[in-house]
Backbone:
Protein backbone atom coordinates (compact mmCIF):
# COMPACT_ATOMS: atom_id res chain seq x y z
CA UNK A 1 0.00 0.00 0.00
CA UNK A 2 1.25 3.45 -0.92
CA UNK A 3 2.05 5.63 2.08
CA UNK A 4 0.59 9.12 2.27
CA UNK A 5 3.18 11.79 2.87
CA UNK A 6 2.85 13.52 6.26
CA UNK A 7 0.45 16.43 6.01
CA UNK A 8 -0.99 15.38 2.68
CA UNK A 9 -4.76 15.56 2.41
CA UNK A 10 -6.93 12.77 1.07
CA UNK A 11 -7.67 14.98 -1.97
CA UNK A 12 -3.98 15.43 -2.75
CA UNK A 13 -3.40 11.73 -2.35
CA UNK A 14 -6.32 10.95 -4.66
CA UNK A 15 -4.91 13.37 -7.23
CA UNK A 16 -1.54 11.66 -7.02
CA UNK A 17 -3.13 8.26 -7.52
CA UNK A 18 -5.18 9.59 -10.45
CA UNK A 19 -2.02 10.90 -12.08
CA UNK A 20 -0.31 7.55 -11.71
CA UNK A 21 -3.36 5.87 -13.25
CA UNK A 22 -3.33 8.24 -16.22
CA UNK A 23 0.36 7.63 -16.81
CA UNK A 24 -0.17 3.90 -16.75
CA UNK A 25 -3.01 4.17 -19.27
CA UNK A 26 -1.07 6.43 -21.62
CA UNK A 27 1.86 4.04 -21.55
CA UNK A 28 -0.35 0.99 -22.06
CA UNK A 29 -2.97 0.09 -24.62
CA UNK A 30 -4.28 2.85 -26.90
CA UNK A 31 -7.83 4.08 -26.49
CA UNK A 32 -10.51 2.90 -28.88
CA UNK A 33 -10.35 6.25 -30.70
CA UNK A 34 -6.58 5.97 -31.06
CA UNK A 35 -6.87 2.39 -32.32
CA UNK A 36 -9.50 3.40 -34.88
CA UNK A 37 -7.39 6.33 -36.08
CA UNK A 38 -4.38 4.03 -36.41
CA UNK A 39 -6.43 1.51 -38.37
CA UNK A 40 -7.66 4.19 -40.78
CA UNK A 41 -4.10 5.42 -41.19
CA UNK A 42 -3.08 1.87 -42.10
CA UNK A 43 -5.77 1.72 -44.82
CA UNK A 44 -4.79 5.14 -46.22
CA UNK A 45 -1.09 4.32 -46.23
CA UNK A 46 -1.73 0.95 -47.86
CA UNK A 47 -3.81 2.52 -50.62
CA UNK A 48 -1.07 5.07 -51.32
CA UNK A 49 1.52 2.31 -51.64
CA UNK A 50 -0.74 0.13 -53.80
CA UNK A 51 -1.27 3.07 -56.13
CA UNK A 52 2.40 3.99 -56.22
CA UNK A 53 3.81 0.48 -56.73
CA UNK A 54 0.89 -1.59 -57.96
CA UNK A 55 -0.65 -4.53 -56.13
CA UNK A 56 2.02 -7.07 -57.11
CA UNK A 57 5.04 -5.01 -56.05
CA UNK A 58 3.57 -3.73 -52.80
CA UNK A 59 4.42 -5.99 -49.88
CA UNK A 60 3.16 -6.28 -46.32
CA UNK A 61 6.72 -5.52 -45.21
CA UNK A 62 6.64 -2.22 -47.10
CA UNK A 63 3.31 -1.29 -45.57
CA UNK A 64 4.47 -2.25 -42.10
CA UNK A 65 7.63 -0.21 -42.46
CA UNK A 66 5.67 2.85 -43.60
CA UNK A 67 3.42 2.47 -40.56
CA UNK A 68 6.21 1.54 -38.14
CA UNK A 69 4.39 -1.75 -37.60
CA UNK A 70 5.71 -5.27 -37.62
CA UNK A 71 4.60 -7.65 -40.35
CA UNK A 72 3.00 -9.75 -37.63
CA UNK A 73 0.87 -6.81 -36.47
CA UNK A 74 -0.46 -6.21 -39.98
CA UNK A 75 -1.28 -9.91 -40.41
CA UNK A 76 -3.12 -9.84 -37.08
CA UNK A 77 -5.57 -7.42 -38.72
CA UNK A 78 -5.71 -8.91 -42.24
CA UNK A 79 -5.18 -12.49 -43.30
CA UNK A 80 -3.40 -11.54 -46.51
CA UNK A 81 -2.43 -8.66 -48.79
CA UNK A 82 -5.57 -8.99 -50.91
CA UNK A 83 -7.90 -8.56 -47.93
CA UNK A 84 -5.97 -5.45 -46.85
CA UNK A 85 -6.19 -4.03 -50.38
CA UNK A 86 -9.93 -4.66 -50.61
CA UNK A 87 -10.56 -3.11 -47.20
CA UNK A 88 -8.58 -0.02 -48.17
CA UNK A 89 -10.45 0.39 -51.46
CA UNK A 90 -13.83 -0.25 -49.86
CA UNK A 91 -13.21 2.47 -47.28
CA UNK A 92 -12.11 4.90 -49.99
CA UNK A 93 -15.33 4.21 -51.92
CA UNK A 94 -17.45 4.75 -48.81
CA UNK A 95 -15.82 8.13 -48.31
CA UNK A 96 -16.61 9.02 -51.94
CA UNK A 97 -20.37 8.52 -51.56
CA UNK A 98 -22.43 11.70 -51.81
CA UNK A 99 -25.10 11.68 -49.05
CA UNK A 100 -28.68 11.92 -50.26
CA UNK A 101 -29.26 14.97 -48.06
CA UNK A 102 -26.42 16.74 -49.88
CA UNK A 103 -27.99 15.96 -53.25
CA UNK A 104 -31.44 17.07 -52.15
CA UNK A 105 -29.98 20.36 -50.94
CA UNK A 106 -28.83 21.05 -54.51
CA UNK A 107 -32.36 20.74 -55.88
CA UNK A 108 -33.82 24.24 -56.04
CA UNK A 109 -36.59 23.26 -58.45
CA UNK A 110 -34.76 24.18 -61.66
CA UNK A 111 -33.66 21.08 -63.59
CA UNK A 112 -30.82 22.76 -65.48
CA UNK A 113 -29.32 24.37 -62.38
CA UNK A 114 -29.69 21.20 -60.32
CA UNK A 115 -27.99 19.00 -62.92
CA UNK A 116 -25.19 21.54 -63.29
CA UNK A 117 -24.63 21.60 -59.52
CA UNK A 118 -24.58 17.80 -59.33
CA UNK A 119 -22.03 17.67 -62.16
CA UNK A 120 -19.78 20.25 -60.49
CA UNK A 121 -19.95 18.38 -57.20
CA UNK A 122 -19.11 15.01 -58.76
CA UNK A 123 -16.30 16.33 -60.95
CA UNK A 124 -14.94 18.24 -57.96
CA UNK A 125 -14.66 14.97 -56.05
CA UNK A 126 -12.31 13.60 -58.68
CA UNK A 127 -10.19 16.74 -58.52
CA UNK A 128 -9.28 15.99 -54.90
CA UNK A 129 -6.21 13.83 -54.12
CA UNK A 130 -8.47 11.20 -52.51
CA UNK A 131 -10.89 11.04 -55.42
CA UNK A 132 -8.13 10.90 -57.99
CA UNK A 133 -6.32 8.17 -56.07
CA UNK A 134 -9.49 6.07 -55.85
CA UNK A 135 -10.27 6.35 -59.55
CA UNK A 136 -6.73 5.46 -60.56
CA UNK A 137 -6.56 2.45 -58.28
CA UNK A 138 -9.91 1.17 -59.61
CA UNK A 139 -8.73 1.56 -63.19
CA UNK A 140 -5.40 -0.10 -62.45
CA UNK A 141 -6.62 -3.07 -60.42
CA UNK A 142 -10.24 -3.80 -61.41
CA UNK A 143 -9.07 -6.51 -63.82
CA UNK A 144 -7.57 -8.34 -60.84
CA UNK A 145 -10.35 -7.43 -58.40
CA UNK A 146 -13.54 -6.89 -60.47
CA UNK A 147 -15.56 -6.46 -57.29
CA UNK A 148 -14.04 -3.02 -56.65
CA UNK A 149 -15.58 -1.73 -59.88
CA UNK A 150 -18.94 -3.17 -58.82
CA UNK A 151 -18.62 -1.71 -55.33
CA UNK A 152 -17.87 1.73 -56.73
CA UNK A 153 -20.91 1.56 -58.99
CA UNK A 154 -23.32 0.19 -56.40
CA UNK A 155 -22.22 2.33 -53.46
CA UNK A 156 -21.20 5.58 -55.12
CA UNK A 157 -22.41 5.92 -58.72
CA UNK A 158 -25.83 4.26 -58.58
CA UNK A 159 -27.26 6.32 -55.66
CA UNK A 160 -26.23 9.45 -57.57
CA UNK A 161 -27.83 8.14 -60.77
CA UNK A 162 -30.98 7.21 -58.88
CA UNK A 163 -31.35 10.79 -57.71
CA UNK A 164 -30.90 12.03 -61.29
CA UNK A 165 -33.54 9.52 -62.46
CA UNK A 166 -35.89 11.01 -59.87
CA UNK A 167 -35.23 14.53 -61.21
CA UNK A 168 -35.77 13.48 -64.82
CA UNK A 169 -38.98 11.59 -64.08
CA UNK A 170 -40.31 14.64 -62.28
CA UNK A 171 -39.50 16.77 -65.34
CA UNK A 172 -41.25 14.25 -67.58
CA UNK A 173 -44.37 14.43 -65.43
CA UNK A 174 -44.29 18.22 -65.73
CA UNK A 175 -43.85 17.98 -69.50
CA UNK A 176 -40.53 19.83 -69.41
CA UNK A 177 -38.74 17.01 -71.20
CA UNK A 178 -39.95 14.17 -73.40
CA UNK A 179 -40.84 10.80 -71.92
CA UNK A 180 -37.81 8.57 -72.32
CA UNK A 181 -36.07 5.81 -70.37
CA UNK A 182 -34.97 7.84 -67.35
CA UNK A 183 -32.24 5.36 -66.38
CA UNK A 184 -30.66 5.60 -69.83
CA UNK A 185 -30.94 9.39 -69.73
CA UNK A 186 -29.25 9.46 -66.31
CA UNK A 187 -26.52 7.17 -67.64
CA UNK A 188 -26.01 9.55 -70.56
CA UNK A 189 -25.68 12.41 -68.09
CA UNK A 190 -22.98 10.55 -66.14
CA UNK A 191 -21.12 9.69 -69.36
CA UNK A 192 -21.44 13.00 -71.22
CA UNK A 193 -21.35 15.53 -68.43
CA UNK A 194 -19.17 13.84 -65.82
CA UNK A 195 -17.28 10.99 -67.47
CA UNK A 196 -15.49 13.01 -70.12
CA UNK A 197 -14.01 15.45 -67.64
CA UNK A 198 -13.11 12.71 -65.18
CA UNK A 199 -11.13 10.87 -67.85
CA UNK A 200 -9.19 14.06 -68.52
CA UNK A 201 -8.49 14.55 -64.82
CA UNK A 202 -7.39 10.94 -64.28
CA UNK A 203 -5.21 11.25 -67.37
CA UNK A 204 -3.23 13.97 -65.63
CA UNK A 205 -4.78 17.22 -66.85
CA UNK A 206 -6.61 19.09 -64.12
CA UNK A 207 -8.99 21.68 -65.62
CA UNK A 208 -9.60 25.06 -64.05
CA UNK A 209 -12.88 25.77 -62.31
CA UNK A 210 -13.82 28.03 -65.22
CA UNK A 211 -13.18 25.18 -67.70
CA UNK A 212 -15.26 22.78 -65.62
CA UNK A 213 -18.10 25.26 -65.45
CA UNK A 214 -18.03 25.94 -69.17
CA UNK A 215 -18.08 22.25 -70.12
CA UNK A 216 -20.76 21.42 -67.57
CA UNK A 217 -23.06 24.12 -68.92
CA UNK A 218 -22.46 23.01 -72.50
CA UNK A 219 -22.98 19.28 -71.94
CA UNK A 220 -26.01 19.70 -69.66
CA UNK A 221 -27.55 21.99 -72.28
CA UNK A 222 -26.74 19.51 -75.03
CA UNK A 223 -28.31 16.64 -73.12
CA UNK A 224 -31.48 18.50 -72.20
CA UNK A 225 -31.91 19.91 -75.71
CA UNK A 226 -31.98 16.33 -76.92
CA UNK A 227 -34.70 15.56 -74.36
CA UNK A 228 -37.02 18.43 -75.32
CA UNK A 229 -40.57 17.34 -76.23
CA UNK A 230 -41.16 17.02 -79.97
CA UNK A 231 -42.35 20.20 -81.60
CA UNK A 232 -40.50 22.35 -79.03
Residues:
Amino acid sequence: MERVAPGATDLEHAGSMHGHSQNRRSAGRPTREQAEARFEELLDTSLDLFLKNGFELTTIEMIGAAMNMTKRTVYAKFEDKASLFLAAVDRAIERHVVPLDTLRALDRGDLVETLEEIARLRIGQYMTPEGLRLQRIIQAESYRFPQIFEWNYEKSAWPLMSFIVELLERAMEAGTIARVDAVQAASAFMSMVVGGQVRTIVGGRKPSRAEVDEKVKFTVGLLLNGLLPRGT
Notes: The chain has two domains: 32-94, 97-226.
